[in-house]
Amino acid sequence: MVCLIGANGAGKTSTLKALARMIPAAGEIRYAGRRIDGLPCHALIGQGLALAPEGRGVFARLSVAENLAMGAYHRAGHDERAAVAEDEARIYGLFPRLAERRRQLAGTLSGGEQQMLAIGRALMGRPRLLLLDEPSMGLAPLMVQAVFDVIRRVAQSGVTILLVEQNARLALAVCNRGYVMESGTITLAGSAADLLADPRVRAAYLGE
After folding, report:
1. Which of 24, 70, 95, 125 is most exposed by smallest CB count within 10 Å?
2. Hey, what CATH topology would domain 2-59+110-205 get?
């Protein structure tokens, strides 16, 4: 787990969108040893890269189950029906609340439930790299804890996670490594533990 922290407007979300090919970017983007900056956004899911966007971005008029199915759309027609069903069951195991609401419209879920759904939908693509943008935004503390408990379990399952998170203390507490971005430039990098102890980080982002 790697986090990217910084103030509002530093360019964190734009970085994730550029990596996911949702916005154009100058230079090269390399993933798993090859350039992906020439690929369209939808092609990256099949390459093992998925994004759970800021603001969740669920399909409000589709059910929970239909939202999850959309996360596996690229696997349709590849005789993976059984595997997709297994993945859906695994998501419900990670997020029991989604299992209870599988027929409910996504737009009627709470903010925390929508965040769970956004992560679950991204995981349906079987990513090797999961980009998470502000998963704690707007959530009550207990829901933040529940969501991050699942994020840890996802990482422990072997999925690499790049986390953008406004709560710098939380991000550095759960990640192995971190980067600090200011005005679109990486200004600090190191282990999460070292960044937590860095007086510049503590003063600028931890309120100390």
Report:
1. 24
2. Rossmann fold (3.40.50)
